[in-house]
Amino acid sequence: MPYRYLLFYKPYNVLSQFTDESDQPRSTLKDFIPVPEVYPVGRLDRDSEGLMLLTNDGGLQHRLSDPKFQHPRTYWVQVERIPDEIALQHLRQGCFIQNYRTRPAQVNLLAMDPQLPSRIPPIRFRKNIPTAWLEMTLVEGRNRQVRRMTAAVGFPTLRLVRVAIAHLCLEGLQPGQWRDLTAAELRKMGEVRNGSL
Predict the structure, then answer these.
(1) Which pLDDT tens digit goes with each residue over 129-159?
(2) Radius of gyration of the chain (CA)
(3) Does residue 70 surpass a pLDDT of 80?
(4) Residue 59 host element (H or E)
(5) Quick one: which of 44, 51, 66, 183 has the fewest CB in 10 Å?
(6) Omega of the bond prior to 121 within 30 degrees of 0, cis?
(7) CATH classification of the domain holding 43
(8) Are 24 and 38 found together in one domain?
(9) Whole-number pLDDT of residue 62
(10) Same-domain status, 98 and 65
(11) Residues designated catalytic
C-alpha cells in the first residue's frame, strides 16, 4: 500500500482518534476522514484545535513523535490577562509542570489577534478580564503541556490552536477539512523521514 500523508484541521470537541469507547458518543476523526489505515502523528486534546498530520508511514510517525528528534510544533494560545515579560521569559526558559522542567520554547506575544474561524462554542467572555494571544513553538509534546505551562506562570489558556508541525502549516484549511500533502510538502517530508531536516 502506498504511503498517504494528510493534513487535517481538527475542530474543537473532536477526539484525536478514530474510535471512541465512551458510553456517550463523541465526534472522532472517523466523522471527517474517510481514508482507511491512516493514523494521527501525535495528538491534540479534545478541547484543542488545529493542525494534525495523519499517515500510514510508521517511520515518519516515529521521527515526528519522538522528542529526541525535536521537531517543532507551533501553537497560537489565547490566555486570560496579558502576560508580562517575566512570565514570557519563564515560558521561554522552561517551567516546572508536574515535577518536570519543560524544554526551552520560542514564545512571543502577538501584537494582533490571529485570523481564525470562530470556535463553536465560543470561549467564555468576561468584560473585566482582558485576553492576549501568544505564539508558542515547542519541540516536545507532553500531555496538555501548553495549558500547564501557561497556568504555571499565572495565565490560564482559554483557546489553543496548533498552526504548524515542522514545515507543515494550517493555512488554507477550515475546521473539519483535510487534504493530501502537496508535492513540495512531500519532498520536505522525505527529508524529515530521512533525518536530513
Answers:
(1) 899 999 999 988 788 899 999 999 999 999 9
(2) 17
(3) no
(4) helix 58-65
(5) 183
(6) yes
(7) 3.30.70.580
(8) yes
(9) 72
(10) no
(11) 45
Residues 121 and 171 placed together within one structural domain of the fold:
no
The answer to whether 20 touches 26, Cβ cutoff 8 Å, is yes
Amino acid at 157: T
What local confidence, expressed as pLDDT, does residue 12 receive?
96
Sign of the Cα pseudo-torsion (68, 143, 106, 55, in order) = positive
**How many domains would you assign to the chain?**
2
94 and 19 inside one domain:
no
H/E run at residue 174: none
Q: Is the pLDDT of residue 58 over 90?
A: no
Residues in Cβ contact with 172 at an 8 Å cutoff, skipping those fewer than 6 apart: 179
Q: Does one domain contain both 65 and 92?
A: no
Concatenated DSSP letters of 18-43: S----SS--B-GGGT---TT-EESS-
As given in the structure block, the three cell numbers for residue 60 are 515518519
Summarize the confidence of residues 1-18 as an average pLDDT. 93
For residue 169, the number of C-alpha atoms closer than 13 Å in the C-beta half-sphere is 4
Average model confidence (pLDDT) across the chain: 90
Domain of 60, in residue numbers: 1-69+166-197
